[in-house]
């Protein structure tokens, strides 16, 4: 049985008896996962390659639905409803639960249009409102100073770190409740990584954050809670300092001390 | 002979043989082009653009009827073929993906791309010209459209598939519905490639003669009614070049020159776009 810390604060998401099976697979890739995600805090998911942490992350905004034949069971509760329900409005869900990918995904359009993309999808056409919200998002993503003079330029001209912050600006522009980060710094240099980590910590005042990372130090630096996953199961979820200093499960200890992984 | 010397000798022989073959191939190309340019430039004069066809021996004869007919037939074929090809390619890449149906369509269009154009011409002859009772511009348009669609469909399919799936996922993750993801992100990412496919598709059909012989046929005078037989540069060139009259043959050279330059231009623009895409 997994050791799950009791979270008394308000919860952003609650995963209960969750199972996920990829199209055509016999065995589920995620088994019997039950975990609370605390509101306005950072939860990190760590574990060796192939343990299912990204698969779990992509379940929170139902990204798996883009490909036919993937199956969920159990429940993920968000704002009082089960988002795995067949009647769930995925478009609305994804504006509430945003996602940042491993590689920067700047769209082939201007910097301004990138950030305005989600806003325009929500039907905001008023030019001054768009301008205001794009500027605010870029400021919140700590990239406004670098791009304010070239908003009309192609976003692909930015560096990798800048593109990743642009993607964060684009995601927070629509004011989501939850942000999912899928190894957001694995394609970036150390300086850009530092910038993104700082930004993630600042963002938790407004959004609940789940971050998948290969890098245990990163989890220790930024997160409030850490979940350790292994072979499709959640082994332990704990307060970050406690999990890294006094892990309750033998597997967790072996992983964080570098015995495998 | 020691093995190193032997290897270097073989290397040299292969190098000489392959360079020689390349040279032979290229020299024919330049031979054709230079004969075409020499005769074509000589034959070009203002009359060509202002006068219609005339009996041999007349000073005031030109290619106006064929130029305008060609533009109409190729233009209308493009107007019909481009949207159909792009929508079909979009289906394959974005909706059909790896389904059986998509693979069947891909295979059929690959076969269609290499089908002899004369077969398509006689097909249109059978289904359009015979029921209508006469040749018509529309029949020519349909024949060229049938040739154009698989080219644009397959390039669009390939180019859209080159757009990284993470880019699509990122748009979905912002709450975009599928049609928005395709029109605002995927098309934008692939626009140079799709445009190249369109240009190459037009270049391919613009040089077709066989399918037009059976369909739009010919008219020695200017006709802009697609319901009637219509002149085209290719068929006019074929008729004039095989005639025994010097002035008609000269007009044939002019038609060949104009057509070749048009297609060459389209191809060069297409290749430049591909290079620009790769260079990025």
How does this structure look, described?
The complex is a heterodimer of chains A (261) and B (280). Helix content of chain A is 35%, strand content 25%. Chain A is an alpha/beta fold. Chain A has one domain (3-51, 70-256): P-loop containing nucleotide triphosphate hydrolases (Rossmann fold). The longest helix of chain A has 14 residues, at 127-140. By secondary structure, chain B is mainly α. Chain B has 2 domains: 3-43; 49-279, Orthogonal Bundle (MetI-like fold). Helices cover 79% and strands 0% of the residues of chain B. Chain A binds chain B through residues 61, 63, 66, 91-95, 98-99, 101-103, 105, 107-109, 117-118, 121-122, 167, 170-171, 174, and chain B through 164, 166-177, 180, 184-185, 188-189.
Low-confidence stretches of chain B: none
The CATH architecture of chain A would be: 3-Layer(aba) Sandwich
Helix content of chain B: over 70%
Helix count of chain B?
A: 11
The structural class of chain A is alpha/beta
How much beta of chain A, percentage-wise?
15-25%
Q: If you average the pLDDT of chain A, what whole number results?
A: 93
The arrangement of helices and strands of chain B along the chain is HHHHHHHHHHH
Short description:
The complex is a heterodimer of chains A (261) and B (280). Chain A is α/β, with parallel strands linked by helices and 261 residues long.
């Amino acid at each position: 049985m997994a050791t799950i810390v009791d979270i008394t604060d308000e919860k952003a998401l609650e995963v209960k008896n969750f199972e996920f099976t990829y199209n055509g697979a016999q065995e589920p890739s995620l088994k019997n996962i039950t975990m609370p995600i605390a509101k306005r805090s950072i939860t990190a998911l760590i574990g060796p390659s192939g343990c299912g942490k990204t698969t779990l992350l992509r379940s929170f905004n139902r990204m798996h639905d883009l490909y036919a034949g993937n199956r969920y069971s159990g429940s993920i509760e968000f704002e009082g409803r089960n988002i795995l329900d067949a009647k769930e409005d995925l478009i609305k869900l994804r504006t509430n639960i945003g996602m940042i990918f491993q590689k920067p995904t700047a769209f082939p359009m201007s910097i301004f249009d990138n950030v305005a993309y989600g806003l325009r999808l929500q039907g905001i056409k008023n030019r001054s409102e768009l301008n205001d919200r794009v500027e605010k998002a870029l400021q919140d993503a700590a990239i406004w100073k670098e791009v304010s003079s070239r908003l009309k330029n192609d976003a692909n001209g930015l560096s990798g770190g800048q593109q990743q912050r642009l993607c964060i600006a684009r995601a927070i522009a629509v004011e989501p409740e939850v942000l999912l980060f899928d190894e957001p710094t694995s394609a970036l240099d150390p300086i850009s990584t530092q910038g993104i980590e700082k930004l993630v910590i600042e963002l938790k005042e407004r959004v609940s954050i789940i971050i998948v990372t290969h890098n245990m130090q990163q989890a220790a630096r930024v997160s409030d809670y850490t979940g350790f996953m292994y072979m499709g199961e959640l082994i332990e979820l704990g307060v970050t300092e406690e999990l890294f200093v006094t892990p309750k499960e033998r597997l967790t200890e072996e992983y964080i001390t570098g015995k495998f992984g | 002979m020691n093995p190193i010397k032997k290897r270097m000798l073989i290397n040299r022989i292969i190098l000489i043989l392959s360079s020689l073959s390349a040279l032979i191939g290229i020299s024919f190309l330049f031979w054709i082009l230079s004969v075409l340019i020499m005769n074509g430039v000589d034959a070009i004069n203002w009359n060509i653009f202002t006068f219609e066809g005339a009996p041999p021996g007349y000073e005031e004869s030109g290619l106006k009827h064929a130029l305008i007919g060609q533009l109409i037939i190729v233009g209308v074929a493009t107007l019909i073929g481009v949207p159909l090809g792009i929508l079909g390619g979009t289906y394959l890449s974005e909706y059909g993906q790896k389904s059986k149906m998509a693979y069947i369509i891909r295979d059929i269009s690959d076969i269609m791309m290499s089908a002899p154009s004369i077969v398509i011409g006689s097909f249109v002859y059978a289904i359009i010209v015979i029921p209508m009772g006469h040749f018509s511009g529309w029949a020519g348009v349909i024949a060229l459209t049938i040739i154009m669609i698989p080219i644009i469909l397959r390039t669009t399919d390939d180019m859209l598939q080159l757009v990284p799936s993470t880019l699509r996922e990122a748009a979905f993750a912002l709450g975009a519905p599928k049609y928005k993801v395709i029109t605002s992100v995927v098309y934008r990412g692939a626009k140079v490639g799709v445009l190249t496919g369109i240009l190459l598709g037009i270049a391919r059909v613009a040089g077709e003669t066989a399918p037009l012989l059976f369909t739009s046929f010919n008219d020695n005078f200017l006709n802009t009614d697609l319901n009637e037989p219509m002149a085209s540069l290719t068929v006019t060139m074929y008729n004039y070049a095989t005639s025994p009259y010097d002035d008609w043959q000269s007009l044939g050279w002019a038609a060949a020159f104009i057509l070749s330059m048009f297609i060459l231009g389209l191809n060069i623009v297409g290749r430049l776009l591909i290079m620009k895409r790769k260079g990025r």
